[in-house]
Amino acid sequence: MTDSFFLSLAQTSMFELLAPTPPGWGGNLVRGFINSIGIGVGAFALGLLIGIGGAFGKLYGGPVRRDLLQVYTTLIRAVPELVLILLIYFAVPDLINRLLDTLGYGRIDVSGPMAGIVALGFVQGAYATEVLRGAILAVPQGQIEAGRAFGMNPTMLMRRITMPAMLPFAIPGLANLWLVAFKGTALLAVVGFNELTLETRQAAGTTKAYFTFFMAAGVLYLLLTLISNVLIGRVEHWARRGRQPIAESR
């Protein structure tokens, strides 16, 4: 009796592993996967913009700006992303709508994708600020002083010396932030946005093929990670062109 039970269980698991995705749901997973990529790209881009401004503000801004940025990076990194998503999706629109009602204007609605991009982007911005700040500090000071000696203004100095020189130091940290942003899109399932995790859960709940669908979702996450690693490796190789390889410099 026991042997037949375990044999049946093993056969069932193997069948679910080898069986194709039940018809009618493969397109949903692809759609959710594309939605996750879109949200991840938007959040990463917003975080990168915030991070660039935050890093330069922390290093070269006035005391008030540095203190405000320090508060921002500390608070955002301390609050879970899920809490930020819920605040932006529910609390912030409610406050804005109350203000608009008071002023006699119409109400607004915040979509799930917009809330996700803003919430994840603000989190990305806090981490990107520290990543880029460290990369800027890693630039040899002599290069910056040489640019100033040639009469470069701060904008030209940043564009021609600081940004190209800091890029090789920043890429590894930014690569991790991109992967975190993509995987963080799974949190948008709590506000009903049809990203990969929610589509997978709905498909698995309807068909009861939990193993098949969640394995398929895991493969999609892994696939994007592998592709991202290849692309990031090429970008890093391009950013380090003309430099001595790390292995040879030791």
UniProtKB/TrEMBL annotation:
It is a multi-pass membrane protein. The keyword Membrane applies. The keyword Glycosyltransferase does not apply. One of its GO terms (cellular component) is ATP-binding cassette (ABC) transporter complex. One of its GO terms (molecular function) is transmembrane transporter activity. The chain crosses the membrane at residues 33-56, 68-90, 110-128, 166-190, 210-232. Keywords: Cell inner membrane, Cell membrane, Membrane, Transmembrane, Transmembrane helix, Transport. This is Amine acid ABC transporter, permease protein, 3-TM region, His/Glu/Gln/Arg/opine family. It comes from Mesorhizobium australicum (strain HAMBI 3006 / LMG 24608 / WSM2073). The lineage of its organism: Bacteria, Pseudomonadati, Pseudomonadota, Alphaproteobacteria, Hyphomicrobiales.
